[in-house]
Amino acid sequence: MAQMPDGEIAPRDGLLPASAALGSAERTLHAYLHIPFCRVRCGYCDYNTYTSSELQGVTENSFLNNLLREITLSKNVLEALHSEQRKFSTVFFGGGTPTQLEAEQLALVLETLKSEFGLEQNAEVTTEANPDTVDERYLNTLADAGFTRVSIGMQSSVSSVLKILDRTHNPENVAKAVAAAKSAGLQVSVDLIYGTPGESLDDWRESLATAIDLDPDHISAYSLIVEPGTKLARQVRSGELAQPSDDDHADKYEIAEQMIAAAGFDWYEICNWSKSPATVSRHNLAYWRSNDWWGYGPGAHSHVGGTRWWNVKHPSAYAERLVASESPALARENLDEAAKATERVLLELRLREGISIDYLKSINPQAAKPISHFIADGMVNAEDAIRGQLTLTLKGRLLTDALVRDLLG
C-alpha cells in the first residue's frame, strides 16, 4: 500500500511558500542526513532503517547518488525562496548507522554540502557511529574531511541488557572507538539508554560508571520507549518482557543526574550533559530553539520558517522521486502561531536556560497561576523565576510534560 501523507500533499517541485522566508536572517540553518542502513535491526528501534536483505535493488552507491541529488535540489529550492542565503551552522549524520558507509562516502556528502551551501566558521559536523564500524583510519578520514564530533551508540555496558535490546556490538569496542576518536581530534559523545526490561539499578550504575570512565565530552541518556510495531513491543505484549515503569525511569534518571554531575558534567537539556559549553550538541540545540533545518534522506523531516515537511519513507520511493528530478517530500504543514507557541514551550522548557515568563503570559494570560504552584512545589527555580525565566529543577525535569500542559492551559 502506498504511504499516505498526514499533512497536505507536498508539491513535486519541492518549492516552499513565501512565508518560509520571513525572518530567515534571524534563524540559523542546519543539515540532517538520514542514512537508513543497519547491519541488524534492534528490537526496540522504530526508526526508518533497513538491513541489506530488506533493500534489494537499493545499493549504498545508488543511495549516495540520490542523497547528492537532494542536496542540489535543496539549494535550488532555497534560492527560489529568495530568503537570506545562509551557510550550514551544523551538520548531523544520523540513522540507521551512518558508519555503515565508508568514511570516504560520508566525506563526499560533506564536501557536497560545503560546495553547495558552505559551512559557517567553526561549524559542528557530527556523525553517529556504531562502535564496531569505526577504527583509527576511519575516524582520521572523517576528521581530515571536516567532521568535528562523533556520537557513539553505547546504550549499555551490561551484556544481558544489550542482548535484550538486540544490540550486537562488542562492548569492548566502545572504549576503542572513543580512544580512536580522541586521537583523531574529534569531540566524543556517548549515548545511553535506561529502563530496559530486566535492567537493575546496579546495572544502570555500572553503565553510567563505564561511560564516565571513558572521559567523553558529552553524555546523552534516554529512557527506553516501547514503540508500537517493534519486536520489543511484541515481547512486552506477550508477557515475555515486563513493561518499563515510570517509577523505574524516574529512579534511573535521578541516578544519572547524580553520577554524571558528580563527574563534572552539566545538564543543558533534559537528556543531555556536557563537560563545558564548548561541547554541547549545537545541532540538537538548533531543534530545541526552532531554527531551520533541511533533513536529507528517506523519511527525513525538515523545517524552514514555520513550514515542516517530510520525505517518503522507503529508499526505493525516495530514489524514484529524485531520479525523476522531483522532490522526495511526501507531505507538509504550515504551522500557525498557536502551533508555533505550543512547540516553543514544549522545546524550550527542556533546556537549562528555560523559557521567558513574559512570553508564557503572552500566550496564556492565566500562566501566572500554574507558575506559582510550580515554585511552591519545587518544580522550578524560584530565583530564576524572580528574574523572569522559568527553569526546571530536577523534580521538575521528571514531570516536564505535565508542566507544559498546565502552562498552555
Task: Give an overview in words.
With 409 residues, this protein is of the alpha/beta class. The chain folds into two domains: 8-288, TIM Barrel (Alpha-Beta Barrel); 337-409, Arc Repressor Mutant, subunit A, CATH 1.10.10. The protein has 16 helices and 15 strands. Helix 2 (103-116) packs parallel to helix 3 (136-145) and helix 6 runs parallel beside helix 8 (246-262). The mean pLDDT is 94. One of its GO terms (molecular function) is coproporphyrinogen oxidase activity. InterPro entries: Aldolase_TIM, Coproporphyrinogen-III_oxidase, Elp3/MiaA/NifB-like_rSAM, HemW-like, rSAM, rSAM_sf.
- The structural class is alpha/beta
Q: Any idea what the CATH superfamily of the largest domain is called?
A: Aldolase class I
How much helix is in the residues?
40-55%
How large is the share of residues in beta strands?
15-25%
- Largest sheet report: 9 strands, mixed
CATH class of the largest domain: Alpha Beta
The total count of strands amounts to 15
Structural domains: how many: 2
- Provide the gyration radius in Å: 21 Å
Note the overall shape: globular
| Cα-to-Cα separation, first versus last residue | 40 Å
Strand order of the largest sheet: 8-9-7-6-5-4-3-2-10
Number of helices: 16
| Low-confidence parts | none
CATH architecture of the largest domain: Alpha-Beta Barrel
**Mean pLDDT across all amino acids:** 94
In CATH terms, what is the fold-level topology of the largest domain?
TIM Barrel
